[in-house]
Amino acid sequence: MCSSWQLESGTCKKKLDSSNTETKIVAVDLQAMAPLPGVIQIQGDITKKSTAEAIISHFKGEQADLVVCDGAPDVTGLHDIDEYIQSQLLLAALNITTHILKPGGKFVAKIFRGKEVSLLYSQLRIFFDRVTIVKPRSSRNSSIEAFALCEGYNPPTGYEPNMMNPLLENSSVDWSKLDEVNRFVTPFLACGDLSAYDSDRCYPLSFKGKYERKDPIQLPIRPPYADAMNLVTKMGDFHIEHHE
C-alpha cells in the first residue's frame, strides 16, 4: 500500500519467483504508477472504503503472506500533527490488512516516532505476536520516520474485520479485558552501527572506474515541474538581470 513503483512493487517482484503464476502482488498508491509486469495496480486512497474493497476483491478470498505500507501524509513540519496523521493512515492500512493477511503473516508499515509511539505499538501488538520498531540505515538520522515490523498475525478470538470501523471503536470485542495491553515497552532497533554511512552526510564519489552514472529506471509520470521545464524549452536559454 502507498507503493513506490520501484522500491516496494519492484523489490517484491524481484524477491518472489516471477515464473510462478500463483504469485500475486497488488500495489496501491494515491498517485499514478507506471505499469509493472506481473503487478496488479490500483490508484486510490486507502482511507476510502471503495479503495479498500478494490484491494480485497483482487485476492478473491485468498490471503496474503505480507503487507507493506510505506505511506506518509504531506508533512507540515509540526511533528505532533504529522505523527497523529501518520498513525491514522497506518490504522487505515491495518484495517485493510486484517481482511487479507493470513494467520502468521507479516505487516511492515512506516511510522513517525514520537511520544505516542507506545500507544501505536500496543494497538499493533493486539494483532501480532511480535512487534519491533526498526530504522533502516537508508533512513536519514534527522528524520522521525521508522518502521513497525509486525510478525505473526494473530487477531484476538472473536475479532471480525469491519470496513466501517477502522479505528476499532465499536468492535464487538471487549478490549478492556485483554491482559496488559498498555504495559508493553516499545523495543527499538537501529539497523547498522556508528561506523556505517550517515544518511545526513554527503560523501565524495569515486569516479575512477567504481562509479557509473545511470539514467533513472522510471521517469516521473506527471512531475509538478513539467510546465516550467516545457516553458524553458520553448523560450530557450534566458537570464534575468537586475538593474538598480
UniProtKB/TrEMBL annotation:
Taxonomic source organism: Lygus hesperus
Single GO term (MF): tRNA methyltransferase activity
InterPro entries named among the record's database cross-references: RNA_methyltr_RlmE (IPR050082), RNA_MeTrfase_FtsJ_dom (IPR002877), SAM-dependent_MTases_sf (IPR029063)
Q: What is this protein called?
A: Putative ribosomal RNA methyltransferase 1
Keyword Membrane carried by entry: no
**A single GO BP:** rRNA processing
This protein's source sits in the domain of life called: Eukaryota
| SUPFAM superfamilies assigned to the protein according to its UniProt record, in alphabetical order | S-adenosyl-L-methionine-dependent methyltransferases (SSF53335)
Where do the Ribosomal RNA methyltransferase FtsJ domain residues begin and end?
21-153
Which keywords does this Swiss-Prot/TrEMBL entry list? Answer: Cytoplasm, Methyltransferase, rRNA processing, S-adenosyl-L-methionine, Transferase
- One GO CC annotation: cytoplasm
